[in-house]
Design a protein that fits this description.
The protein is an alpha+beta fold and about 80 residues long. It is about 25% helix and about 20% strand. The chain has one domain (about 10-75).
Length: about 80
């Protein structure tokens, strides 16, 4: 069994992207995070698309979760490697 790492601070939900599933890479996720004051946002760790880039207007938790699930099912982007 693969050991999971702790989620980054503020992340309240994670969705594994299609690329992450195919490559068995648990770091390739779409994260939903709480920024405080009822401000919920989301970001893909592969293509770096954010919920703010989406066509959705409201950023309530239910809508952001819907966006994250929808995006994760389709995203095949690979994260940019760190410079050596």
């Amino acid at each position: 069994m693969e050991r999971q790492t702790a989620w980054p601070k503020g992340v309240i939900s994670r969705y594994l992207t299609d690329a992450g599933r195919a490559l068995a890479d648990p770091s390739m996720t779409v994260d939903i995070f709480d920024q405080g004051d009822s401000d919920i946002d989301g970001r893909c760790n592969g293509c770096e698309e954010t919920f703010e880039d989406s066509p959705y207007i409201t950023n309530d938790l239910r809508t952001v979760r819907h966006w994250a699930q929808e995006h994760a099912e389709k995203c095949r982007a690979m994260p940019r490697p760190n410079a050596a």
